[in-house]
Design brief:
Shape: globular
Helix content: under 10%
Number of domains: 2
Number of helices: 4
Number of strands: 27
Strand content: 35-45%
Amino acid sequence: MPRRRLPPPICTWHVLGAAVLVCVATWSLARAGSPDCRPSANQKGSLLVFPAVEIQWDGEGNLTQDTIISLTNDIASDVYIQLHYVNGDAPLEAVYGKPGEKGEKPELIERSHPGWNSLKCEGLLTCDQPMYFSAFSGRPLGVVPFSNLDPSGRPDGSDSGRRHLRGYVLAWAVDRNGAEIHWNHLAGTATTVNFADGSAFEYEAYVLQARSGSNGFSTDDNPGQLLLNGVEYDALYETLLLNFFSSGDQDPSLRGIGLPFDTDLTLMPVQSDLRGKNFGPVRTFLRFDVWNQNEHHFGTSRRMITMWDQELLSRHPEPSYFTREQLQTDVGYARIDGLANVACDPFAIPAALVGVSNRVIDFSKYECQKESSARTLPGDGCEEAAITYDAQPVRLCGREGDCNGNGLVEVGDVLEFNLCISGPGEKTAEHCVCADFDEDGDVDLLDIAFFQRMAGRAPSAGSLNVCEGDDR
């Protein structure tokens, strides 16, 4: 969609013509319930954006890093949550060795990997419920795991044999038919834990409020499209703002102790087409305007990204102005914008961005580990975006035995349960979480016994629409 920037809250438009009447009315709607039309990590809303999610494995396939997604529903009513996982990296072709001397097939060195692919699943948050799930396993919420985007991940580019899977998660409130609804009672955090180096960081999700409709009802008559325009949902920032320590040895405490600082910067355009038949990944041209602490403007640093980007500031292409040598001061400030650039790529579009900066300090020379702290980036101005998806009836799977998601374990669940039976030690299909009672990855005789005992009862997570209480 073409770029449309909304005026910042302090601006007044002075333009004549019928189009202005529309713009003024739209702005009035955006301003009706809040002094600002933009996202925040300090409010509750109907749409959550987690820009940085990553799983890592060591060279032997052992899990070394996981991201925990926490969700909270703070009202005394149940709500369905639709989750979309997106792989942020590009597809990779398989890598083969040289053919054998006698015409044997070349040895497969590395399998092919999907890229920019997405998965959809649904979960249920009950009344006043905080809940979380592991990106690796989908437990304990019982949703399809993020790791299913590319099981066991791809090589991370180092020589250590490590593998990773990176990308982002979108979550929003929907009704039983999968249509987006007004439900400004959601909040969330992402906590990434690295078991190998003993580090962790956490950030608050971007939270966008629904601005049309009443609580529990559709936001408009067009399910399958979330308009982030200040009318249906909050708009986004026009530019992101980044404060950073320049990359390299720093001494912020002025104690004569040099510590290697760096910033792992994640950026993504929110404009997304998540339908089965879509227009492909979004490309945008990133522009960084950089200043040092002496207020000197270094000009611009540029790079093209597709769908999602994560890179240490020290590894940004020249000229980046992010290192101590280039910036010439310890700290700097950058404004980041997603632009079209026909000369570089005719398919690049202007795009509203969100991002996470993770400041990393390396204490290894003092026999300690890395420490990091993350935050979602603030911004300036307003800009629109849209998220399109296939609105389909909710199909909950993950509540013990309730494979059709109607709140009871009954005859309608028997067929799907039977299709999930795999036998001891045999990994079951990803959609069979509801049948794996003992959470051991298979559906065997023990799970069948549990299923029989649950017949006619609601799953232990609670039946649907059982909450009673205030309507906040």
